[in-house]
Description:
The chain is an alpha+beta fold and 251 residues long. It has seven helices and seven strands. It folds into two domains: 26-138, Nitrile hydratase, beta subunit (Cyclin A, domain 1), CATH 1.10.472.20; 155-236, SH3 type barrels. It starts with 25 loop residues before the first helix and ends in a 15-residue tail after the last strand.
Amino acid sequence: MKLQHYxxxxxxxxxxxxxxxxxxxxxxxxIFGIHTAMMALSPQLSxxxxxxxxxxxxxxxxxxxxxxAMNPFDYxxxxxxxxxxxxxxxxxxxxxYITEEELEARTAEYLGDPDKPLPRGGSPEIDRRVERYLEExxxxxxxxxxxxxxxxxxxxxxxxxPTLEHTRLPGFLRDRNGTVVTVYPGAYGYLxxxxxxxxxxxxxxxCVRFDPQDLWPGNTEPNLSLxxxxxxxxxxxPTAELAAPSGDASA
Length: 251
């Protein structure tokens, strides 16, 4: 099936509205700040301990899974940071930080009194950890020696892996053949141990070149190439012939 969050490669979706502002409304900055604090306080990061009550793992994968798990009709109805809010709220409920009833009650309080002061928390230790996270980031790159099955110039095929809660694999590349042009040094994970589509422990990543004519026969311009960075879990030995186009933009 096509996942509503990834429709790349499809045609005829109608006119697109491009919003260039990072934040459209003030409340969106708060949602971004909440996510940033959750990332910084997540216990899998090697940062100084703090007195924060946040004790569970939160990654970019968790954020995306929460938003992408929405009903497709709701997904297209809500704004970008509204999806973030839904995913974050669902995470807090699922991990026991707040119940649905408590969340509904607090929401009703502020809807009834929009000027009610917001709760304040934090501590100098928490602030310093968040600031350090913002400075250092959380790169998925790891300086590890991992198996490398393919080399530059090798022909490869993109697997059609089962899509679970989140995918990093464009649908129009599934079951297609390409050529490895770069083997990136070190290893890369996806900031989570549970993985998405089999991505968990850090692994090799390849830059693979594709001929757009093989992806969209008869519907491309000449002398073009498409490049994609792909986790090793997505790459396999090539097939003898390219699979017939499926028209699908995601699994």
